[in-house]
Every structure is written in C-alpha cells, then in structure tokens.
Amino acid sequence: MHETIPVTDAATTQTIWAIGIMLLATSLFNIGMALQKHGVSQLPPLEQQRVWASIKQLLGNRHWLAGYVAGFVGITLNMLALGLADISIIQPFLGFG
C-alpha cells in the first residue's frame, strides 16, 4: 500500500508562522496592558494641571514603561503577522487573552 506524505506549500507554512506570531503579539499586548495598569496604580493620582509632571512619573515607573514596551512590541508583531497572512485569519486572534 502506498502512503502519501502531506506536502505543505509555502503559503500554508507562512500562515502557520503568522498565527504563531499573532499569538505572541496578543500575549505581549495583554501583558503590556496589565503591567501599565500595575504601574499606574503605584503612582499618586494624575493631575490634569501638571501634565508634564505626570508624564515624567509614568516614564519613571519601571512597570508602566515595561508595559508600554511590551505593548509596542506586540503591535509591531501584529503588523508583521498581517503582512504574512490575510486579516481574516490573523485579526480574530487579537481577542485571545
């Protein structure tokens, strides 16, 4: 009996990579939001009249800054995944997490 070996074409492999990248992107984006929330909870109340002082406090908070970086990397990976596969395949994974 002859066994057939499934052949994966380049488009399928690219789509699988895109899904994996998008899952990583979603995880980083969600972790980033949680870190930012934790960082803000450690700060005194933000005041509208002291915008620059508030921005300085945020940028000086390690948790908030790490969350911002994680979110930025997540969004960047999202764009990479969208370049590898159709939006109809990739974008639903943004809801995971």
Structure explained in plain terms:
This protein is mostly helical and 97 residues long. It is 71% helix and 0% strand. It is built from four helices and no strands. α1 (10-41) packs antiparallel against α3. The longest helix is centred in the first third of the chain and has 32 residues, at 10-41. The protein is elongated. The relative contact order is 0.22. The mean pLDDT is 89.
Order of helices and strands: HHHH
Number of strands: 0
Mean pLDDT: 89
Helix content: over 70%
Category by helix and strand content: mainly alpha
Q: How far is it from the N-terminal to the C-terminal residue, by CA?
A: 45 Å
Low-pLDDT segments, ≥5 res: none
Q: Please compute the radius of gyration using only Cα atoms.
A: 20 Å
Large-scale geometry:
elongated
Q: How many distinct helices?
A: 4
β-sheet strand percentage: under 5%
| Main sheet: strands, sense, barrel | none
List key phrases describing it.
97 residues, mainly alpha, 4 helices, 71% helix, elongated
What's this model, at a glance?
With 97 residues, the protein is mainly α. It contains 4 helices and no strands.
Task: Break the fold down into its secondary structure elements and pairings.
Layout: H1 10-41, H2 51-60, H3 62-84, H4 87-90
